[in-house]
Amino acid sequence: MANKPFLTDIKTLRERARKHIENGAVTEGYTADRETVVKLLNEALATELVCVLRYADQIAQRIVQLKGAPNFNPEGLLTRSHAEYVEGDTLTDMIKEDLVAERIAIDSYREMITYFGNDDPTSRRMLEGILAMEEEHAEDLVSLLETMS
């Protein structure tokens, strides 16, 4: 194993990088079945979107029950949201920004739950369930950050 080269020589790396440049990030060294990976990632994306939609649907249903109109209009979304959308430059930065958003949601939902109190136990219980999920997400992100450092 000591004789096995760790890295490809720089000249070869440069030559390979120029071949099939139209393939972007998919280089010759990519050995996974790309179609299967894309299929699996689309399933993961769909799963995440369904989870988000499930929360939105629960909240929207409660708004309708209260004779209100759910506001799904993307215009003004960031001004209505308690969390900001901040893009990270690195994977660690992106995870940290996700964690910040989760922490904002946790505090916001906690304050809403306190406000609802016994005056609106249905909305309170709904947000308590969502809050529990947000707390799990935050813990998962903290664990991920710890493993990365």
Number of strands: 0
Dominant shape? elongated
What is the oligomer described by this structure? single chain
Q: Spell out the helices and strands N to C.
A: HHHHH
The description of the largest β-sheet is: none
Number of helices: 5
Radius of gyration over alpha carbons?
Answer: 22 Å
Overall mean confidence score, pLDDT:
87
Distance between the termini: 28 Å
Which stretches are low in confidence, meaning pLDDT under 50 for 5 or more residues running?
Answer: none
In percent terms, what proportion of residues is strand? under 5%
Structural class, by secondary structure, is mainly alpha
Percent helix range: 55-70%
Describe the model.
- This protein has 149 residues and is mainly α.
- Helices cover 66% and strands 0% of the residues.
- The protein has helices at residues 10-18, 34-65, 77-80, 91-116, 121-148.
- The mean pLDDT is 87.
Task: Record keyword descriptors for this entry.
mainly alpha, 5 helices, 149 residues
Chain-wise SSE layout:
Blueprint: H1 10-18, H2 34-65, H3 77-80, H4 91-116, H5 121-148
Helix pairs in contact: 2-5, 4-5
In short:
The chain has helices at residues 10-18, 34-65, 77-80, 91-116, 121-148. The protein is mainly α.
